[in-house]
């Protein structure tokens, strides 16, 4: 594997599916898993097998179905969880057990009511036990974002000694600033013995809207895996959005960090996840929102019509969106009206356009958006006034 390849670990079916209302049955999960495999993700976190018989079955069936990606099951640092996950993953071509424990003061003191030493012991035991079943064991230090770096380094070192192949550094509560998260990854790279034999992974939540920025800071600092979900769904404000990190790396080639994602499938995959989970996406969502490639102000429309790159940094075709949209509102100008009219068969002279634009503004001031049917009406109207035959 190239040193600059960023592994994409998709957790739509685990961290994403945890969200109230997003629950999927096995059949739906299989359809999404197949699509994620096609999309080119490296790891599919298929579920938390011990959590319910339904989740066990889903992980089991996905393990049989997926031929290319690694299939991963989540566990706590608990023997029964690990044993059940191993059983669920037994048909996987490339199985991975994802086990771990909270490492921040709040987790140690209030959740487990224990000591740092006891947490390290549990981490070691969990990784060693998981190694009995699979070669590929990912260890997560839950709430690493708020964990003291020196203690985090100690836990990571012990997890490596116990056989972990990947170390997940979750910003579970979405608290870190990008500089802080990047510095944490750098600290681990510089202070953990054996760190170069494992992959460091970013798992960032979006409570402050920084999940994507933190993940990018993490890979710039040396992490080589990003954990993310389609549309950024996930606990509370969500996880890092897969489509965002993938397009950031693609649009900034000087970073020299690549993924294997077929970006042309991003939009369709986003639609599939919305539909199956019944979870809509905000219109202004980056990359896949309804307005991501829509232009509505006159100044922007004029620029885009002359040259798309004036106001677009991504060619919509690159993410599977057929074309940019010129949305007609009362803020649109003549260029946009002429452009849309031409699309539906009206080639306007300057005089016709001037007349049509006066009518257009009358319509547009009364409604939020002008659609093709309105343009037909406007053309009829100016035909009547000007007696000029149009298309
Ligand atoms: O956010 C988190 O810490 C997690 C872990 C279970 C990996 O989802
Ligand atoms: Zn999470």
What's the structural blueprint in terms of helices and strands?
Blueprint: E1 7-10, H1 12-16, H2 26-39, E2 43-47, H3 53-65, E3 70-74, H4 79-88, E4 95-102, H5 105-111, H6 116-131, E5 136-142, H7 149-161, E6 166-171, H8 178-191, E7 199-204, H9 211-220, E8 225-228, H10 242-251, H11 266-277, E9 294-295, H12 298-306, E10 325-326, H13 334-343, H14 350-366, H15 372-386
Helix pairs in contact: 2-3, 2-11, 3-4, 6-7, 7-8, 8-9, 9-10, 12-13, 14-15
The structure holds 3-methyl-2-oxobutanoic acid and zinc ion (ZN).
Zinc ion binds near residues 170, 172, 203, 205 and 235.
Helix/strand-derived category reads alpha/beta
Number of beta-strand segments: 10
Straight-line N-to-C gap: 58 Å
Q: Give average pLDDT, whole number.
A: 96
Q: Any idea what the radius of gyration is?
A: 25 Å
What strand line-up does the widest sheet have? 1-2-3-4-5-6-7-8
Shape: elongated
If helices are DSSP runs of H or I spanning 4 or more residues, what is the number of helices? 15
Indicate the multimeric state: single chain
Biggest β-sheet description? 8 strands, parallel, barrel
Percentage of helical residues? 40-55%
Which distinct ligands sit in these coordinates? 3-methyl-2-oxobutanoic acid, zinc ion
Beta-strand portion reads: 5-15%
Low-confidence stretches: none
